Predict the 3D structure of the following.
Amino acid sequence: MSVTRGRRTRALAAGALSAALLSTGTATAAATGMPAPKPTATRTSMPSMKPSRTPTAMGSITVAASHKAVKVGNAVVFTGRVKGIKAGSTLVLQHQRNGKWTTLKTTAAVNKNGTYTIKRTFTAKGTEHVRVATKSGTFHSSPVAVRVS
């Protein structure tokens, strides 16, 4: 059976079932004296063709820090994998300041095997919440915390 013939058969069966259900509802309404339901015109919207901006919809980024705690001036290496992001794409390191994610000047490119490595030296004491994101900001990893003392 061809694909279009199968679709046509399903469409006919769905139409016949709909007609049977509607006629049963009308017959029941006539027998009970209740008015038949009136059809209503409703608009159905077309699905949006915009890509979703959720990180897991088309791509994802993972991140792991080489150290969870470092002294000021010591480097931390962030490594991870990407899925759904082309090799050669630029990734940036972001940190959270006053509730907003700010892009740092530390970048890396996605390798052919979907991995990356970013090295960052922190110069201020405190806890840094960082994540890795695509340069466009479409995808980002979950944040990791690094304590700098």
